[in-house]
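WARN no homologs supplied; continuing
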Amino acid sequence: MASPPAFEPPRRLLLTRAHVAVLLNAGLLEEARYELLNGALVEKMPQNKPHVVSCRRVTHALEDCFGRERVGAQAPIMLDEINEPEPDSYVTRFPLEDYPDNPTARDVVLVVEVSDTTLRVDRTDKAESYARAGILEYWIVDVNGRRLILHQQPTEDGYGSIQILDENGAVLPLMAQGEPFAIRDLLP
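OK structure emitted
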């Protein structure tokens, strides 16, 4: 008696940045509604008031620390061919105007995601993508948990150091000088 054929899951098409560009140019996608993560188009969640307030606070704190010209907000960064997320804030090595296209992973020294409804994705898929790309530092501002999850030491398998700092703590980015800023000042 012959054994049944082994089950093989259906193949999935991995989208690349080039595929997405074709879809956008053909008018088949609304650019502002999706980001490319691990070869899939992921719909961005609507922003509520706590998210908006925290994003603004994070961006202002980073601008105070690094200068306005090096801080991007809610704009794409190119990690690789199948990942082009749009983090809530990020810091580049040089002024944004120096980059002819969206910054790449080697241009970005810090990425921040503000999480109120996306904590699982931010802690797993995005953390893995940022680590594989070599982003030196990744923060998740957990609005509901009133804490900051600090990721450092990127490897192919994830971040080697993950610390959870409550709202009473303070943080200073790796590539910054000066005084740490209070985590509660990043929260709504």
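The longest helix spans residues 49-66.
OK
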